[in-house]
Structure formats: structure tokens, C-alpha cells
Amino acid sequence: MPLLETPFASLDLIRQPEQQNEPLQAFDAADEYLLNHLAEQPLAADTRVLVLNDSFGGLAASLEGKVQVTSSGDSFLAFQGLEKNLVRNSLAFDAVPFVPASEPPVGPFDRVLVRVPKTLALLEEQLIRLQGQLAPGAQVIAGAMIKHLPRAAGDLLERYIGPVQASLAVKKARLLIATAQDKAPATSPYPTRYTLDDPAIELLNHANVFCREGLDIGTRAFLPHLPKNLGTARVADLGCGNGVLAIASALQNPEAHYTLVDESFMAVQSASENWRAAMGERDVIVRAGDGLAGQEAQSLDVVLCNPPFHQQQVVGDFLAWRMFQQAREALVVGGALYIVGNRHLGYHSKLARLFRGVEQVAANPKFVILKARK
Length: 374
What we know:
Elements: E1 4-5, E2 10-11, H1 29-39, E3 48-52, H2 58-63, E4 68-73, H3 76-88, E5 98-100, E6 109-115, H4 120-129, E7 134-145, H5 151-160, E8 164-166, E9 173-179, E10 192-195, E11 202-205, H6 217-222, E12 234-238, H7 244-252, E13 257-262, H8 265-279, E14 285-288, E15 300-305, E16 310-311, E17 314-315, H9 318-330, E18 331-342, H10 347-354, E19 357-363, E20 367-373
């Protein structure tokens, strides 16, 4: 794999989760552009730099030791990538402070480097949180590959930070450079809320939650077919999002025990708040993580999952396949994984390679709900 070479450092980086013969590198031309641009500016050792949405730690690890750098983002896998890539390049795993996106970073910051996220609501929330956290003369420099840089990103920078200058394109990447101005305080439009009729609950959704404005159609298809009569079963909602599958299941199974896990810190924050609102003080485990990687083997009876089919801008079934493998490890013999998926993804044949029996619970023209028994 090529190294991330900039005036700050030469780094050997890996993606998360790791896979054999990884076809993709852990950085791109936008990372290089951001660092090369920053290197052209006079930076003292005490310059405070905030890095937002660093893919796998390349930006923050490059700056460690050169400036006072803090990293913040919404991806547990990106955070894990930062720690592993620091160690891989002979730095301490905790050399760069990390602030999950469920918490606001505390400035003042002289420079903010932003990888423009796929969800612009996350960018908007992050820019709003920079209010009062920028030092005089601060710059916010956002970077992305041009194909992933919507015009609205520049509009958000202009609205919440100040005048924006777009750079020339380099290797199909572009920067948007915003100079901080005094702005009237803005009120965040997040979290958003919507209500369901069945079950009758209200769901709160922080900025980066999938389908923030309403229930996604896959989950809508899944809800009527969640397993009943689970008794005291140990159930995990894998990739829980706002927690709706676990909450709907828990309402039907008052004695079951639930674990909710997602790699988005904002999803975990949303799920935790939604569980409390719907279930009161009922015991639950809600955590950010790399799926069920940290789950003890044969410690679950049921896993519920609406698997993702992309990681950041990359589309594919690698994450779903990995979740199925994790579920198999975590389930007891005789335990079951229930999933919903687009018909065309062909999950039935994938599950049949891992599980003893796979049956179709229900289907509509777009989705299938499958039960795979270990």
C-alpha cells in the first residue's frame, strides 16, 4: 500500500475493519491536499488544530507532535483506525485526544480540518458546535473528492463560519476555505423526532442517524415480523441506528435482555435516549463498537439486523458479510439471526454458507426478511 506522504510525516496506514488483500487505501487525495495546504501556513507548536471526520486517522496522526491536535468524528471504526495507525507509525495509541460526535469538542481552535461527511446534517451540526470555539483569525478548511463535494457544503460553511473560498482542483480533490466571522448564535435543528403508530413511540434522531426524518422502508417491512415469545432470551440489535428494532422487540418481550450496538456514536446516543423514553429504567446495554467484535462467543440467543451496504462513500456487502459472521460467533447453537435486506442483494445464499438453516420469514416486492439458525 502507498504511504501518505506530506510535509508533516510519511505514514503507513490501514483501513478499518481490516480485510485480507484490502483493495482500498486508507487515505485519498483530499487528505493529502488538506495537509499540504496546512503545511504552507506558519504553524507554531502550540497551534490548536481540530480534525473532523478523519477517515482512518491519517490527518490527525500526520499532525501529532507538530501542533496541538484533537480529533472528532462519528465513526467508531475511524476512531479505531486512528488508534491502530498511531501505533503502526510508532506513536502512542492515545497520542491524539478523540472526542466522539455525541460530545462537543472544546476549543479555542486556530484551524479546523474537515473531511466533508456523506451526511450533510452531520457537517451542519459540527459547524454549529464550532460557535464560540474558534480563536480570532481561525480558518475552517473542508476537503473532499470533487465527486463527493455537494454545493450545499460551501453554503453551510458560509452560513455558520464565514466567507468561503474554493481552491483549485488537485488530483480530483478540492478544498473550501472559510474564514471565521462573528455570527449571530444559531440554534441546531438536531435532534429531529418522528412518531410511529405501531408501536406507539416517538423516536429522537441525532444528526448522523440513518433515515433521520422517518422510518426507513426496510425497517418498516421488518417490524411486523420481529420474533415473539422470546422469554428471557439475550437479544442484540446489531447496527441499531436509533434503536427502533430493539425497542419494538422489547415491548413485545418484556423479560428479554437487550444489547444495542452501532459504529455511529450519534446512533448510540439516539438509541440510548429512545430506550429510556420508551422503556424507562429497564436494563439495557447500548454501546458504540465494531459490530459484535467485542461480544463473548455463544452469549446471545437472537440477533436482529438491518445491515448497511456502504461504509462512508464505499458501497459493498463487506460490512454485512462481516456482521453475519460476527452474529454466528456470538449466537448459541440453535440461536437465530433475523435480517431484512433488499431482494437483489442475495443475502439468502450468503447466510446459507454460514448457518445451518435459512428460511424466508416474509417478503414484499423490494425486501425479504430472513431467519438464519445456527
